[in-house]
Every structure is written in C-alpha cells, then in structure tokens.
Design goal:
The protein has 212 residues and is an alpha+beta fold. The chain contains four helices and eleven strands.
C-alpha cells in the first residue's frame, strides 16, 4: 500500500491541500491505512495547538515585568551574571475583594516575593489624603530565617530610571517614600554576579498581579 509523506499530511491537516489530492488522501484513509491515520492524527493535534497558541495573550503583569527587565538592562550597568525576577507568593489583596466593597485604600498591602532562598517581605502603605506612598521592606534568607540580609544595596526604579538608593540595615530592613510613579521596581544587588528585581504594585489596586 502506498503511503503519503508527512508533508502531505501537514497540508491535509491545515486544509491547504489541493482538492484533487485531498480526495485521494481521504480515500486512502477510508481504505483503512492505520499508519497514515496516526500520522494525520498527530499533525491535527499540532495544528490545533498552533491555532490556540496564536490566540494566547500572556497576563499583562507578565508583559509589564518583562518590559521592565529590558528597560533595566538598557539604563542600569549590571554586572555580568544573572538578573532574576522574584515570584509573588503572597498578596494580602488576594482573594478578590468581597462583593460590594470598592477598594481597600485605607489598608496597607502586604506582599511576599521569593527567589530561591531569598525572601522579600513588602508592605505598601498609602498616605491618607495624598498621592504619596510609604514602602517598608525586609530582605531575608529562608536558610537563615533569624538573620536579615544586611548592607544590601536596594534601588527604587520607575520605568527603568533610578529614583532612590538605600542599603538594608542589620535586620535586612529598608524603606522608601514616593509619589505617583509608573512601572515601579526594586532592584537588589545581592552579589557581584546576581541582581534581583521585584515589581512593586500600586498600594490601592488589586489588578495586574498574579500568584505563582
């Protein structure tokens, strides 16, 4: 029995085969060729996956973090080594707000990010009656939970531009105060060859962040 090559079954699965040959291949399948039936089934799965992939839209938060990472590369002199984006593992704004409640503007937002054994505990507190925000944080190593990571340079950035620098104290603590900023990140120079980036959410918005 003559079999059709994989390239023909790809076109058949994509419905781009000329009509005459499509009829021949369909007749071949109806004659009971198991080998070509399996070949077609595989390529149909591939085509279906590819069609779904075209319509996939990544979360806006992931896009924003990726763009911020490229912006940081362009304006910040990183050491040769790895640039890591920490994962969000806890957000006090999750689960979603109870129905009927419009916001939590008077409440601080508590977040926990993690990358390897490094944990970043953040508290984002809006200042009532103004646009200013206070950000309190602590840098910890879960392998040594009783000791904060001290003397670590922490930079606050907005859209890739450095706004302010701080160093963690003996307990790994740091703080920043700022007004309206877009696409905020914290950057930690952990080691000569390791830089950690943490996206900073708005204090009063629960949109755009997802737990891992």
């Amino acid at each position: 029995m003559k079999h059709f090559p994989a390239t023909d079954w790809i076109d058949f699965a994509r419905h781009t085969m000329e009509r005459g040959k499509t009829i021949d291949m369909q007749r071949h399948l109806e004659e009971g060729c198991g080998r070509c039936s399996k070949n077609l089934e595989m390529w149909r799965l591939v085509v279906d996956f590819a069609n779904k992939e075209e319509g996939y839209q990544p979360p806006e938060s992931s896009v924003r973090i990726a763009r911020a990472g490229f912006a940081l590369r362009n304006v910040t002199p990183f050491p040769t080594g790895q640039l890591e984006v920490a994962n969000l593992v806890f957000d006090s704004f999750e689960p979603a707000l109870v129905a009927g409640i419009r916001g939590q503007s008077a409440s601080p937002r508590q977040l926990l990010f993690k990358s390897g054994t490094v944990c970043i505990d953040l508290r984002v507190q809006p200042t009532p009656g103004s646009d200013s925000v206070v950000l309190l944080g602590q840098l910890l190593d879960s392998a040594r939970p009783t000791q904060g990571l001290s003397d670590i340079l922490v930079s606050l950035l907005s859209e890739g531009a450095t706004i302010s620098h701080k160093k963690t104290n003996d307990f790994g603590e740091f703080d920043f105060g700022f007004g309206l900023l877009r696409n905020k990140q914290l950057m930690f120079g952990l080691e000569e060859s390791r830089t950690l980036v943490v996206p900073v959410p708005d204090a009063t918005s629960d949109a755009g962040f997802q737990l891992i």
